[in-house]
Automatic annotation (TrEMBL):
Pfam families: ATP-synt_8. The keyword Protease does not apply. This is ATP synthase complex subunit 8. Belongs to the ATPase protein 8 family. It comes from Tachuris rubrigastra. It is a single-pass membrane protein. GO terms for cellular component: mitochondrial membrane; proton-transporting ATP synthase complex. Keywords: ATP synthesis, CF(0), Hydrogen ion transport, Ion transport, Membrane, Mitochondrion, Transmembrane, Transmembrane helix, Transport. It is found in: Mitochondrion membrane.
Amino acid sequence: MPQLNPSPWFFIMLISWYTFSFLLQPKIILFTPTNSPSNKELTTMKTTSWNWPWT
């Protein structure tokens, strides 16, 4: 059963984790969100009830 032989797949897994951890992750971390959170005050909306003519 060749799928149980870890020899070629273990090396591929190590190379892929190395690529992600040391090459791609620092580049991804550098991205900043375009809409940063701001300190806006919460405003509450004043609602009025609807006057139904049949009640």
